[in-house]
């Protein structure tokens, strides 16, 4: 079955960077886009960006431009999200979610990874 | 990219129908037929319930339906069941390969 498994919880100090991984299985990795979405404690979902695992192209939300980098490793079917210059407001659960098929356009977020809690604290 | 506007909460009794609205602009909801709705139970990852305004993924009950008029999308849940109690998030494509979520609506089944 299609499954996304994310890396474990992280605790970081302000100003540091964090890199979260999302390993895909059960489907052809390079055929589907991957989204990253975060959720601060008690808050709603916030779209961060998307990566095309086939060519590696990315698109980021304006809010995170310059601070976020999404990459992929096709040999291990893994996508990564790195967020730099962390501040306390970045404390959140970070999710990866499979998007639509490459070469098509539709609004698809499924399945989701289990989430990775990133805590930013001095 | 401003978040889409959803009511903070809605409620209904078992067996009743409820509708959750999601208001955006002509740059997102009004400009594309790419609206999705996801359900999230406490402490769990979201689950896709509706995509492309009104399509249901395999396995989602037909009690869940979606629609759109102008800059507003809606999710209707008919025949409410206790397990429908959750947070619901709308999401729209916003052009140039960007997406935007709504603030979320807490559904309470009375």
Task: Please state the average pLDDT score of chain A.
Answer: 96
Distance between the termini of chain B: 35 Å
Radius of gyration of chain B: 13 Å
Low-confidence runs of chain B (pLDDT<50, min 5 residues)?
none
Kindly provide the radius of gyration of chain A, computed on alpha-carbon positions and rounded to a whole number of angstroms. Answer: 14 Å
Largest beta-sheet characterization of chain A: 6 strands, mixed
Biggest sheet record of chain B: 6 strands, mixed
- Biggest interface found: A-B, 24 and 27 residues
- Please give the order of strands in the largest beta sheet of chain A: 2-10-9-4-5-6
Treating each run of at least 4 consecutive H or I residues as one helix, how many helices of chain A?
0
Number of strands of chain A: 10
Strand pairing plus helix content of chain A: what structural class?
mainly beta
What helical percentage do the residues of chain B reach? under 10%
Q: If helices are DSSP runs of H or I spanning 4 or more residues, what is the number of helices of chain B?
A: 0
Rough outline of chain A = globular
Order of helices and strands of chain B: EEEEEEEEE
What is the mean predicted local confidence, pLDDT of chain B?
96
Helix content of chain A: under 10%
Description:
The complex is a heterodimer of chains A (122) and B (110). With 122 residues, chain A is mainly β. Chain A is built from no helices and ten strands. The radius of gyration of chain A is 14 Å and the shape is globular. Chain B has strands spanning 9-12, 18-23, 35-40, 47-50, 64-69, 72-77, 86-93, 99-101, 105-109. Chain B is globular, with a radius of gyration of 13 Å. The chains are: A mainly beta (122), B mainly beta (110). Chain A binds chain B through residues 35, 37, 44-47, 50, 59, 61-63, 95, 97, 105-115, and chain B through 1, 3, 34-36, 38, 40, 45-48, 51-52, 57, 89, 91-93, 96-104.
